[in-house]
Every structure is written in structure tokens, then in C-alpha cells.
């Protein structure tokens, strides 16, 4: 499926190329990008080719991605005030920040990443039972939710779990990551309540304001998987996008790859052990910040927890 080496041949291939047919053929395998890798592909299908004409700027040493220590936020008024100020500044200037000492044990974070690996590395027939294009289901596993509508196809498989307010029954969750999904979700919901309190205060509102608007009730856990790509120069794991939620709590692996667009430069978000990345989504910035917190990101994460 790679383009031919001469210009006439390329034009001929372009004229004959049927993107929709290739998308359908890929989707019908129900094996995702991981299936391509397992099949031993050496040239990626054309549906994954992305125009990378715009270069990614190297990390500028003058940009220091915000890291906020939440230790004491729930019991020390003086520390809480300092934390709120840091969140206000990071939200207004970045739309992103990393949090440490957030209350979720590092063992839980590591086991969550391991559970994601176990799911994607199990036999394809076990994964196919969760494969669907019905986005209303409580568990949705596929490659690219917008496969047939997006401008590009990302080199990524994703599984979505709707963990609140009406989660799947325990027996409906994959056995390989069932317990850690429940434990991780409980931790993220608790952290989410604290973050919404702090964000409310950072906006000059009562600490309960966002909770009273039901911002803390919904939780979707998205588990992304980026298999090794034989031609990484031709594609991306995630194209430039914004998150259409209130906040995203993102757990990176040690490899990294997450970048945010800050002052017209792409800035790396360095992986930090036991840290979580917080992204203010469209709903929060549109409703409560008068668009001051808008930002784009390119994500190479494993676990993306969206609180809505």
C-alpha cells in the first residue's frame, strides 16, 4: 500500500486509490493497529499517512511545564491558597499542568498501565468481543473512534470504559484489567472532586460551584495503545486536537510523546513518575473561563480519564 517510486506511478495510484474501501477492510478485521503489527507489516497502509509538513518545534528551555504539588490541599488552608494560585496561573497560561502527591498510589498507576498492556496483548479473539462502532455502549474498543469521519487515521487502538455514573457490571469488564479499572476509577473520581474544587476557587467561585453543576458525576476511562510502527515518519499516534470534556486526567508511560501547543510552539510534557497531567477541556474553558484556557494537544498517553 506504499506509494510507488516514480511520479507517474504515484499519480496513477492516487487516481485509483479508494480510501473508504481501505478503511472498511481495516475495520472489518476487528484487529486494529495491533493486528497489523502482529501480521508483520513493513509498510503502513495509506490510510495512516499524515501530512507532517508543519515541523514540531524542539522543547524550548525557556518553557517550563507547570508541576503542582497537591500535598496539603485538603487540610492546610495556607497551602491550599498557594495551590489555587498555581492552578490559576497554569490554567490561564497553559491550559495544562502536572500534579504530584495527588492521592492515587504509584502502585495503582503502574498496575493500570500494566492492565492496559495485558488487554491489548491478549489474543485478538478475546478483544473482538468488545470491538464495536456503537459509541453508546459502556465499553467501546476499536481503532480510531472517528475512523470514517476523521481527516487522518491515527496509529492507535483505543478502549473506552464509561465508569460513572452508570458503570458496566463487574463481569462485563475484561478479566485481565477488571480490578484495576475499578480501583483506578475510584481514585480518579476522588481526585476529580478535589480538582474541581480548586478550579472553582481559581475562577473566584465557591469551591462547590463546579460540583453543583454535576461536573464530577461522569467518568470515561480511555486506554490508548500505540504499537511499534515500521514507518513512524509517515504517521502519528494522535493528531492535533482538543478534548471536548471538562477536564482530562492523563497518565503517561515512561516513553512520553505528549506535546502541547503553547505560544505557537509545541512543548514536550516530560514523563514524571507518579505524576498525572491535567488538561482543561472545551466544556470548562467555554463555560467558565471566557476562552482564556483554550489549548491544543498531541497525546501519546496510555490512560486518559475524562471527567465530564
From TrEMBL:
Positions in coiled-coil regions: none
Entry keyword annotation includes Iron: yes
SUPFAM superfamilies: Clavaminate synthase-like
Residue span(s) of domain Fe2OG dioxygenase: 217-308
Short name of one Pfam family: 2OG-FeII_Oxy
Keywords: Iron, Metal-binding, Oxidoreductase
GO molecular function: dioxygenase activity; metal ion binding
Regions crossing the membrane: none
InterPro entries, alphabetized: DIOX_N, IPNS-like_FE2OG_OXY, IPNS-like_sf, Oxoglu/Fe-dep_dioxygenase_dom
Protein name, per record: Fe2OG dioxygenase domain-containing protein
Organism annotation: Linum tenue
Native organism taxonomy: Eukaryota, Viridiplantae, Streptophyta, Embryophyta, Tracheophyta
